[in-house]
Amino acid sequence: MSILDKASDSSAVLLKKGVDDEAALQRSCPCGSGKCYSECCAPLHAGVAVAQTAEQLMRSRYSAYVFKLADYLAQTWAEKTRPVEISFEENLSWQKLTILQAHKGRAKDKKGSVTFCAEFQQGLERFRMTEKSRFERDKQGCWVYVDGEFY
Ligand SMILES: [Zn+2]
Description:
- By secondary structure, the chain is of the alpha+beta class.
- The protein folds into two domains: 1-49, no CATH class; 51-151, Nuclear Transport Factor 2, Chain: A, CATH 3.10.450.
- Helices cover 27% and strands 30% of the residues.
- It has helices at 3-8, 11-17, 22-26, 42-45, 54-66, 70-75, and strands at residues 92-104, 111-122, 125-137, 143-150.
- The protein has a four-stranded antiparallel β-sheet, with helices on one face.
- Strand 3 (125-137) and strand 4 form a beta hairpin.
- The structure holds zinc ion.
- Zinc ion (ZN) binds next to helix 5.
């Protein structure tokens, strides 16, 4: 069963466990993949699919920041570097994600890194950050975020 099949018959699950906004499921995914959210990051957020690559996990974590899904961010954060509490800045809104480079992190890899640029707005100002994130597989074999280097 592909992620697509799972997504289409599990809108209820997606709504229950992920974003509680039905309209968001039909809109384009915030990660910028060009797909709609229900066919992209939503199945990952709802726990009905797992990221196959580090880049896919990276995208889904960006979308999780957009939707303020603290549980998903915690789940996909390596135990050794995971913060005790994940908080979101009140007046910050994520605007755009651009993947610049992915190194390894494919289905057959155990580690990988993804360099990306994220644009966000805070108050009236727009900012841009570039980070190289490192990922590895946890004990269950799922991709998790380890840490990042800023540029
Ligand atoms: Zn997505």
